[in-house]
Amino acid sequence: MNVRRQSDRTGPVVETTSRHVREIVVEANGIALSGLLAEPDTPVPRAVVVAVHGGGMRAGYFDSRARPGLSLLELGARHGYTVLALDRPGYGLSAERLPEGQSLSDQADTLHAALASFARDHEVGAGFFLVAHSNGGKLAFSTVARDGGTGFLGLDVSGLGTRYAVDLPQLPGAGVPGDWRRHWGALRLYPPGAFALGRALVVPVPRLEAEELPRWPGMYPSIAARVHLPVRLTFAEQERWWCHDDEAVAEMTGRLATRRVTVARQPHAGHNISLGWAARTYHLRALAFLEECLLARDAAGTPPVRSREGSPRRMTPHQLDFNLG
């Protein structure tokens, strides 16, 4: 068993015990991104799940320790996947280098570079699959919109829409956390201890990210028009930041270039799904969607190649052409 300590400049230190999860630092064009990594027992993963946290949070959002079974990292590793949860630019280790954060476009550049770096040193199986929350969903869409989404299998995004359910002055921003009830919903949706553990994950939203929040509804159409990969959208029962009625969801899905869009409603959950009781259910459904993406590739006859250890896999790091130039 490995003991992990997660901390940041503003929050307390939390100690957790995990068989699979360890801290990692990934270099991205000279920027060091901190994060968490969980790997399966097999030498080659089936794929790599890249978990992208939301605004004002850390990578540990996807590694809840309030109850066994809630962590996406441990769950994914047990099902044969590598799970990489990175602190987005301006969070964690990169906060000192990027105190103002980065624009969405620059974050996409940095994430591309980080994943290319990761692929040079790690087996990636069939490729990368993004699981993203809230503001992290914006980065997920922006990332796969580049270069036709080369190297990516699909994405699962929760807690993100295109129409805000609040007036713009109510949006969380730099130094403004926003209404906690909109982040969490009813207290009964979270196991005892979730809020105490969650405090260690909460950090300020970087200024550049905060400034772009009001512009997202106008930015989304051009980004969505370049998303050709399978997409799954999840809205919590008590989602209170975004409009998610039928009309709003149809508008959001209608902008996507992909022909494969799945919309899910997660009962018994607030905006922060991965920290609540519903985390395991949501994570299993996200992994099931990844399984469907892999099935589609198998049915299309995508040939496996050989890994460094000589066992089959579907993609080498050199085939992950992120076209960073």
Descriptive overview:
Helices cover 28% and strands 22% of the residues. The protein contains 9 helices and 12 strands. The protein has helices at residues 72-78, 104-121, 135-144, 180-184, 194-198, 207-212, 216-224, 246-254, 279-299; strands at 2-6, 14-18, 21-28, 31-38, 48-52, 82-86, 128-133, 152-158, 231-238, 261-270, 305-306, 312-313. An 8-stranded mixed β-sheet has the order 3-4-6-5-7-8-9-10, sandwiched between helices. Strands 1-2 form a two-stranded antiparallel ribbon. The protein has a two-stranded antiparallel ribbon with strand order 11-12. Helix 1 links the parallel strand 5 and strand 6. Helix 2 packs across helix 3 (135-144). The radius of gyration is 18 Å and the shape is globular. Residues 1-17 and 305-325 have low confidence and may be disordered.
Categorize the overall geometry.
Answer: globular
Computed Rg? 18 Å
Intertermini distance: 41 Å
Strand order of the largest sheet: 3-4-6-5-7-8-9-10
* Structural class category: alpha/beta
The share of residues in helices is 25-40%
Number of strands: 12
Low-confidence stretches: 1-17, 305-325
Along the chain, the helix and strand elements come as EEEEEHEHEHEHHHHEHEHEE
Tally the helices: what do you get?
9
Chart the SSEs and their pairings.
Blueprint: E1 2-6, E2 14-18, E3 21-28, E4 31-38, E5 48-52, H1 72-78, E6 82-86, H2 104-121, E7 128-133, H3 135-144, E8 152-158, H4 180-184, H5 194-198, H6 207-212, H7 216-224, E9 231-238, H8 246-254, E10 261-270, H9 279-299, E11 305-306, E12 312-313
Parallel strand pairs: 5-6, 5-7, 7-8, 8-9, 9-10
Antiparallel strand pairs: 1-2, 3-4, 4-6, 11-12
